[in-house]
Amino acid sequence: MRIGVIGASGQLGSELCQQLGNAAVPWTRAAIDLTDHVALAPMLRDSGVDLVINTAAYNKVDLSEDEPELAFAVNAFGPRQLALACAELELPLMHVSTDYVFGQEVHRDRPWQETDAPGPVSAYGTSKLTGEYFVRSLCPQHYVVRTCGLYGHAARQGAGKGNFVETMLRLGREREELRIVNDQHCTPTSVRDLAAALIELAATEQFGLYHATNSGQTTWAELAAEVFSLEQMNTRVIPIPSAEYPTKARRPRYSVLSCTRLEEVLGRPLPSWQEALRRYLEERRTPENPSARSAT
Ligand SMILES: NC(=O)c1ccc[n+]([C@@H]2O[C@H](COP(=O)([O-])OP(=O)(O)OC[C@H]3O[C@@H](n4cnc5c(N)ncnc54)[C@H](OP(=O)(O)O)[C@@H]3O)[C@@H](O)[C@H]2O)c1
Questions:
Q1: CB within 8 A of 31, min separation 6: which ones?
Q2: For the domain that residue 56 is a member of, what is the CATH number?
Q3: DSSP string, 225-275
Q4: Is residue 287 included in any domain, yes or no?
Q5: What is the pLDDT of residues 247-280, one digit of tens each?
Q6: Paired residues of 190 in beta bridges
Q7: Out of 58, 100, 124, 151, which one is annotated catalytic?
Q8: What is the pLDDT, as a whole number, of residue 192?
Q9: Cα 40 to the chain's mean position, in Å?
Q10: Which residue, among 172, 3, 144, 22, has the nearest Cα to 83 in the 3D structure?
């Protein structure tokens, strides 16, 4: 099976290509630009792939408030065109989405299920939700997979916007204490574990909407504290409410995703977020490790 990966230089895309090896047909933005609707269908037709995974996105959450047209072009109308092309070619399409499709229910404290009604609170979240709807309505053979808080080694090469773990490692070296929000509950997820799950899911033909994250839940402040503890750094974390760290875009207070549907298909949960983080930091310390090779 040959799998076309759109967004191949991003965190998730590069990890997928690495795990797929010769089965991957990597498409960076130079090869497939989701906003170029004319080139998309011929490119897919000529490629001979058996399935397409779309990891590309306009991920700048705060900037999306100022440039919603760009967010919608990449996150909604690009996937729409992709879904139309895949449907015409009878190709299955796996499309990656986000926990930021939730957020309006501010007192939520139970993990979101695929059957729960979404309600984004940002332009980014709305653009991603629109992309989901296009894929689900236009391409019968679809997997739409929502995930959360991604980190992977490719971010160290400057792919995408970096990631929270790398930002903490950098800031932790520069400062003695950091004030980090402690009232946004979510599940940080290693692209290593997510990519493995996506590849397994892609072979099942059990199409539909899925949630896929590492197991458990935490907050950004707790995650930062865990990073510093595992790296034996003395940086102090001061937990603060979101109100003390205003951002252009609102974020969900609670966006933990229930992954039981995926667990039933795979027969296992993804590893805990703590285990995944420990592994990521270990790989980072030993760049000769093949797992971290893509970032060295
Ligand atoms: N990062 C997170 O914390 C997070 C959380 C939840 C869900 N997600 C979702 O997970 C998926 C993967 O995220 P990621 O962290 O791997 O993202 P990433 O590292 O930012 O990579 C995104 C890739 O998309 C490419 N791209 C941007 N605009 C494009 C366009 N018009 N046409 C084609 N490619 C384009 C970028 O190319 P360039 O390198 O050329 O810019 C980049 O390689 C996305 O769907 C995202 O919405 C991410």
A1: 8, 43
A2: 3.40.50.720
A3: HHHHHHTT---EEEEE-GGGS--SS---SB--B--HHHHHHHTSPPPBHHH
A4: no
A5: 999 999 999 999 999 999 999 999 999 999 999 9
A6: 151
A7: 124
A8: 98
A9: 22
A10: 144
| Residue that is written with structure tokens 């003390």 in the block | 244
Q: Which atom of ligand 1 is nearest to the CA of 146?
A: 7
- Domain annotation covers residue 200: yes
Q: Which domain holds residue 125?
A: 3-162+187-215+255-273
Angle between helical axes of 123-138 and 78-89 (0-180°, round to 10): 10
Q: What is the C-alpha R_g of the chain? A: 18
pLDDT at 154: 82
Residues of the chain with pLDDT under 70: 156-161, 287-296
Q: Is 149 in the pocket of ligand 1 (CB under 6 A)?
A: yes
User: In sequence order, which residues have a C-beta less than 8 Å from that of residue 248 and are 6 or more positions away?
Assistant: 62, 63, 65, 66
Would you say the CB of residue 105 lies under 6 angstroms from ligand 1? Answer: no
pLDDT score recorded for residue 294? 46
Q: Is the C-beta atom of 12 inside 6 A of ligand 1?
A: yes
DSSP classification of residue 215: B
- Cross-sheet strand order for the sheet of 24-27: 24-27, 3-6, 51-54, 93-98, 142-147, 208-211
Question: In which element (H, E) is residue 98 found?
Answer: strand 93-98
Q: Whose CA is nearest to atom 43 of ligand 1?
A: 10
58 flagged as catalytic: no
Atom 34, ligand 1: residue with shortest CA distance: 29
What dihedral angle (degrees, nearest 10) is formed by the CA atoms of 277, 176, 186, 75? Answer: -90
How many structural domains are present in the chain?
Answer: 1
Tell me, using a 6 A CB cutoff, whether residue 29 lines ligand 1: yes
In a domain, 121, yes or no: yes
Is residue 181 in a domain?
no
C-alpha 57 to ligand 1 mean position (Å):
4
What element of type H or E holds 276?
helix 273-285
